[in-house]
Automatic annotation (TrEMBL):
<dbReference type="InterPro" id="IPR001753">
    <property type="entry name" value="Enoyl-CoA_hydra/iso"/>
</dbReference>
<keyword id="KW-0413">Isomerase</keyword>
<dbReference type="GO" id="GO:0005739">
    <property type="term" value="C:mitochondrion"/>
</dbReference>
<dbReference type="InterPro" id="IPR029045">
    <property type="entry name" value="ClpP/crotonase-like_dom_sf"/>
</dbReference>
<keyword id="KW-0443">Lipid metabolism</keyword>
<comment type="pathway">
    <text>Lipid metabolism; fatty acid beta-oxidation.</text>
</comment>
<dbReference type="InterPro" id="IPR045002">
    <property type="entry name" value="Ech1-like"/>
</dbReference>
<dbReference type="InterPro" id="IPR014748">
    <property type="entry name" value="Enoyl-CoA_hydra_C"/>
</dbReference>
<protein>
    <submittedName>
        <fullName>Putative enoyl-coa isomerase</fullName>
    </submittedName>
</protein>
<dbReference type="GO" id="GO:0051750">
    <property type="term" value="F:delta(3,5)-delta(2,4)-dienoyl-CoA isomerase activity"/>
</dbReference>
<comment type="similarity">
    <text>Belongs to the enoyl-CoA hydratase/isomerase family.</text>
</comment>
<dbReference type="GO" id="GO:0006635">
    <property type="term" value="P:fatty acid beta-oxidation"/>
</dbReference>
<keyword id="KW-0276">Fatty acid metabolism</keyword>
<dbReference type="Pfam" id="PF00378">
    <property type="entry name" value="ECH_1"/>
</dbReference>
Length: 275
């Protein structure tokens, strides 16, 4: 299936790569791109031939922010609605469309890796903080620019960034001041896992990591991601109860049984034929 402003390729067995492809608009986020991300991630989440996903971007920058022409047209259309309640409903619907794209990434049962080069601004931050792992090149920089547009970020950055970096003071500084954060600072505060000298090195590394994940037990990976996500919004005890109940089933899967022998003997890892 084809998606507007989004290229999808199978890089290696069980590994899919998504490229943001809106170079004409310098990789800004448009309504059509939000729809494409949601539909594509949802489809890959249901695709048993996909076990790990890498999100990258074509062109000079990863994402340069909101498409202002797109937003301007929406505001023009909004002004034609006389009733304030109906205007509010229209804005709410648009924000929900944006949010569901990145919620789909966060809740996808397959691990999602973001690789960032150049600018990562506004909704680009919403996208990468919804991913499980993040790598960047030396030229990458990050900015929560929304306050400069007279609005608060509503794509998920305010909710996820503090949890990703584990430092609410740093997250608030980014969001309150709209200042740029370079690759080194992003690494220092835990926004990214690693920095690479070139985009190709970064891509190769991310694909290798995705392939490694894709060849581990799908049941174990899915259970691990689900538990981490659940535990972020619950107490430690609730998280312990959650993984106990999940593993009560997961440990009965064939994956667990065929993994034990190689783990004990150091022999070659088993192949997991079923997702």
């Amino acid at each position: 299936m084809e998606y507007k402003h989004l290229r999808v390729n199978s890089e290696r067995p069980f590994v899919f790569r998504l490229d943001l492809d809106n170079e004409v608009a310098n990789n800004t986020m448009t309504d059509s791109l939000y729809h494409s991300i949601y539909k594509c991630i949802t489809a890959l989440g249901r695709n048993n031939e996909c076990r790990a996903i890498v999100i990258s971007s074509l062109g000079k920058d990863f994402c340069t922010g909101i498409d202002l022409d797109n937003l301007g047209q929406f505001n023009t259309d909004l002004a034609s609605i006389e009733d304030i309640s109906r205007r509010g409903r229209s804005v709410e619907s648009r924000i929900s469309t944006i949010q569901r794209a990145f919620v789909a990434i966060e809740r996808c049962k397959k691990p999602v890796i973001a690789i960032i080069h150049g600018a990562c601004v506004g909704p680009g931050m919403g996208l990468i903080t919804a991913c499980d792992m993040r790598y960047c090149s030396t030229d990458a920089w990050f900015q929560v620019k929304d306050v400069e547009l007279g609005m608060a970020a509503d794509s998920g950055t305010l909710q996820r960034l503090p949890k990703v970096v584990g430092n609410t003071s740093f997250a608030r500084e980014m969001c309150f001041t709209a200042r740029r954060v370079d690759a080194e600072e992003a690494l220092r505060f835990g926004l990214v896992n690693r920095i690479f000298e070139s985009r190709q090195q970064m891509l190769n590394y991310a694909i290798d990591k995705a392939e490694l994940i894709a060849h581990l037990s799908p049941v174990a990976i899915q259970t691990t991601k689900t538990s981490i996500l659940y535990s972020q919004g619950h107490t430690i005890q609730e998280g312990l109860d959650h993984i106990r109940d999940r593993n009560a089933l997961a440990r009965q899967s064939e994956d667990f049984h065929i993994s034990m022998g190689p783990a004990m003997t150091g022999s070659e890892r088993p192949a997991y034929a079923r997702y």
